[in-house]
């Protein structure tokens, strides 16, 4: 009689999940590139740029959380449906590609992962080929269309993954909600910047919708739904995911001001130049105003959204944020969110090894330089 599989042990898939996701994405994008070639060679060239962006970096965080949501709800990595599950969860990276391409365009970011952003790269193509019209508008149009293409292909990859009909039906709700939430978060981010809303409340509302929902909370929900998790486990995953997702974004906000460009792939202080109304900035302004340091508040306000912000002024802002206690306050908030998330995870009936791995990911995501 064959031995019973030990689902509590980590398998090869568990140990090299990013590599497996990479292979699924490569295979999918190669097929779509062949289809694009039949439409038009110029379109195929544009698809190459999108494929290069998708495959050119990233930690595959979202499929990782989704995988452990599936495993934590009893998903069997040795089961016949596993290849389809892996393919479906890999589609999250195309949602991420859409969000990043559009986010870079809205923020007018020049660099992503150490390379020109999509809208900048296509603007440079326009100049190099001496095309008609304005290079910036051409780059804008290309980025909008390629971001939309990534979103459309994400749907294709999920719904064509080969999941059993009942599993696909369960997956539809978190997928639908996630797509709406990430776009709502993007809009709220733009609106908050346009309004100049400096409140702590706004600084927390945006990452809740823009990052937490589609980075951790809904990927966990998606994986658990595919596995057939009950409502109680889904709610526990969502509590854990919301807290870790916000903490993840707060860590990212700190890296956006204090991070090493060699690690972040973006110029130092770019979040300040782009005018991001993060919790770090909101707390800095709040602490400056309540302590009567109006000159310090003025320095911060002048820096946020200044595209010509120099490295010297970035360093002044860094020192102010430390001196005002904003950095320490954000670090405390991250610690509180991580501890709340870990408590929610510990109280839930999450199968091993997912319970242990999710706890590890919670720490890595909030203390990392990912």
From TrEMBL:
PROSITE patterns: POLYPRENYL_SYNTHASE_1, POLYPRENYL_SYNTHASE_2. It comes from Streptoalloteichus tenebrarius (strain ATCC 17920 / DSM 40477 / JCM 4838 / CBS 697.72 / NBRC 16177 / NCIMB 11028 / NRRL B-12390 / A12253. 1 / ISP 5477). This is Geranylgeranyl diphosphate synthase, type I. Its cofactor is Mg(2+). PANTHER family: GERANYLGERANYL PYROPHOSPHATE SYNTHASE, SHORT CHAIN ISOPRENYL DIPHOSPHATE SYNTHASE. The lineage of its organism: Bacteria, Bacillati, Actinomycetota, Actinomycetes, Pseudonocardiales. InterPro entries: Isoprenoid_synthase_dom_sf (IPR008949), Polyprenyl_synt (IPR000092), Polyprenyl_synt_CS (IPR033749). The keyword Magnesium applies. Belongs to the FPP/GGPP synthase family. It holds the Pfam family polyprenyl_synt. Keywords: Magnesium, Metal-binding, Transferase.
């Amino acid at each position: 009689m064959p031995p019973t599989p030990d689902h509590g042990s980590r398998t090869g898939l568990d140990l090299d999940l990013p590599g497996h996701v990479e292979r699924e994405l490569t295979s999918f994008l190669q097929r779509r590139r062949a289809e694009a070639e039949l439409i038009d060679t110029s379109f195929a060239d544009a698809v190459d740029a999108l494929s290069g962006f998708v495959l050119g970096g990233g930690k595959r965080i979202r499929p990782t959380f989704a995988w452990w949501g599936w495993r934590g709800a009893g998903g069997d990595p040795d089961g016949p449906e596993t290849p389809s599950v892996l393919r479906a969860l890999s589609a999250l990276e195309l949602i991420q590609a859409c969000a990043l391409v559009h986010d870079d365009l809205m923020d007018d970011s020049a660099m992503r992962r150490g390379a020109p952003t999509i809208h900048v790269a296509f603007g440079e193509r326009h100049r190099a080929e001496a095309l008609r019209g304005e290079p910036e508008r051409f780059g804008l149009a290309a980025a909008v269309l390629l971001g939309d293409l990534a979103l459309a292909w994400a749907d294709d990859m999920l719904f064509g993954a080969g999941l059993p009909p009942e599993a696909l039906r369960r997956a539809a709700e978190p997928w639908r909600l996630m797509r709406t939430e990430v776009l709502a978060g993007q809009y709220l981010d733009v609106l908050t910047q346009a309004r100049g809303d400096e409140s702590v409340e706004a600084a927390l509302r945006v990452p809740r919708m823009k990052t937490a929902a589609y980075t951790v909370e809904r990927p966990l929900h998606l994986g658990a739904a595919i596995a057939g998790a009950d409502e109680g486990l889904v709610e526990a995953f969502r509590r854990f995911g919301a807290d870790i997702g916000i903490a993840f974004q707060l860590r990212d906000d700190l890296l956006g001001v204090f991070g090493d460009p060699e690690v972040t792939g973006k110029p130092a202080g770019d979040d300040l130049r782009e005018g991001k109304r993060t919790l770090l900035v909101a707390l800095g302004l709040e602490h400056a105003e309540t302590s009567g340091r109006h000159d310090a508040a003025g320095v911060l306000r002048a820096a946020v959204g200044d595209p010509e912000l120099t490295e010297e002024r970035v360093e002044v802002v860094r020192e102010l944020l430390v001196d005002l206690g904003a950095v320490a306050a954000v670090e405390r908030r991250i610690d509180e969110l991580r501890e709340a998330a870990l408590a929610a995870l510990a109280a839930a009936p999450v199968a091993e090894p997912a319970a242990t791995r999710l706890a590890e990911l919670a720490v890595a995501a909030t203390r990392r330089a990912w």
